[in-house]
Predict the structure.
Amino acid sequence: MKSLSDLQRIRDEAKKRVGMREGNQEYRIVVGMATCGIAAGARPVLTTLVEEAAKNNYPVTVTQTGCIGMCTLEPIVEVYGPKGDKTTYVLIDPKKAVEILEEHIGKGKVKTEYTVGSSGVAL
Amino acid sequence: MMERVHVLVCAGTGCTSSQSDVIVEKFRSYVRQFDLQDEVKVIKTGCFGLCQKGPIIAIHPDKTFYCHVLPSDVEEIVVEHLYKGRPVKRLELSDIDEETKEKVFEIEKIRFYAKQMRIALKNCGVINPEDIDEYIAQDGYMALGKALESMKPQEVIDEIKKSGLRGRGGGGFLTGLKWQFAANQPKGQKYVICNADEGDPGAFMDRSILEGDPHSVLEAMAIAGYAIGANHGYVYIRAEYPIAVERLEIAIEQAKNYGLLGKKILGSKFDFDIEIRLGAGAFVCGEETALIASIEGKRGMPMPKPPFPAISGVWGKPTIINNVETFANVPIILLKGADWFASIGTEKSKGTKVFALGGKIVNTGLVEIPMGTTLREVIYEIGGGCPNNKNFKAVQTGGPSGGCLTENDLDTPIDFDNLVALGSMMGSGGMIVLDEDNCIVDVARFYLDFIVDESCGKCTPCRVGTKRLLEMLNDVCEGRGSLQTLHDMEDLAYKIKDTSLCGLGQTAPNPVLSTLRLFRDEYLAHVVKKKCPSGVCKALLTYSIIRDKCRKCSLCAKQCPTGAITGVPGKEPYVIDPSKCIKCGACVTACRFDAVVRV
């Protein structure tokens, strides 16, 4: 590299790859990854979230958890906001996951049609 | 593909010795087995500090820390945590919250970490030390870039001066001032040396920094080179640190490939190269002039100062020599500013200090604390106190050049000047805790024995004097000492201090003088009563069996390796023949009725 700006460019790229180790991002996205979640296709949802979040520099930490308890609604994605608010999205696939990132994280608007409340399942 | 989980396994010397390298391999193979290789990255990282609980593994972004991990635990972690998202609770690092008495798992709430402040160790346990990109991601080499782009060499020196950074290798000399001396020399060939010849028994701060974050030291050396007008650097490191040497070699190679070392760094006119010089592990080579002699290929022996290395150092050229930890503080000072650094610590000791906690302490390991933290906080809150509910006796700081501090000193804020005022010193950061079972004379003897081994032999006071002093200590430990011996010891100790050539000899009697002053009663017990109160000095011990307590069970006699115990099972009480007894203590352990006593 020939200049400080070259170094800065490498840094910005490298930061994306290790940023997750710092945690404490604005949003925390948790994907249910128990047997039920995995069987319903949670893994591609999780990897899509990780990829897209890094690509677009969304302020999120993506992690996994065990069974959330509503196995018929898996894959389930929970989004914890900066104020501790929680939104539960159900029956998510990779395409929907991208939309959630764009709308919820990018624009701060809850993607209501995918939430558990709109799923029509009586809880 | 972007990984979603990073598994960071400590690959420092401590954890490697408890098979962390095997654990890394197992992780990689199980990750492949479960087809997670695109999602999970397994990384070797530097020291997390809590060596006592190693091998330590961190899983991010979950911030889960596992401790005491065995290779056989890896499958469970991969299946349960990485695959199914359920942390393996039984292996998680935890602590008991003092107020709620509940188990806590968050790293910030674990007492070992709560009072620490990581500056020199900031990247240890966070990055992969063998990947320069990870260092750069933590703003690595940005300080060098900043210096080259927007600061004059004198401005760099002024910033370091203003920060109040003092040498972490032991002396506590102002780093900025040292740089100034070398910078003031006429232009021409100058050198920057990193002193990684860490030799104090029980100290491993520098090793951990080099193993966990080698680039920070390289970057700082280049900054120092720019500041004083040097274009060549040496890292003098002992060959006994193979992992650190290997990581340094990798780091130098990567920095050269990126053009962060070599010619015209970052497009400036500044050239800087670094070479590694391996030391053979002689303690005296930590002394500046001996270190320089060793780099030049000569026998590692000190020279009288002046001239100081800043005027005439390696190959007779102006040279600055800084310790590893000192260098590790430099990049962040330039990035965050001298004022930020100077806001941490005490009036005359700024920043933090890394200590290697060892000896009779629950949490053995590496801790970094702001200057001004008290010894009590370090030993009890971070270190967890003495194990097995034993009483704290003293803490030894400064290695073979330092001294002991007792219960009375525990509330003293740790800084360079306070420790000297108490008759010890900061040293490079070894902190050995002693409990009631340690004999203070034996401890002094241990350090002096080390010095006798390590004295280079150039000057008589150190070569012969320390040997005579050790013989006197042996006399005390073995029951041949008298009040006169103690008097002679003190007298000789001061003579060695006053007349030795270099720092090694000048400080060698410190452990003896310090313990003589603080624990005179214990020395007196050895020479007057011929007893060792802690029961360590074997020559002063006798074992006997209390006749009335003996149940004639013969257990002690069966355990005795020399057949010194005789009696008749069920009939005659057992007795110990002192002429055959080797004082191993096996009989005390064997007896179930407390009939065997040691006096």
Remarks:
- Chain B has five domains: 5-114, 132-342, 352-435, 440-529, 542-598.
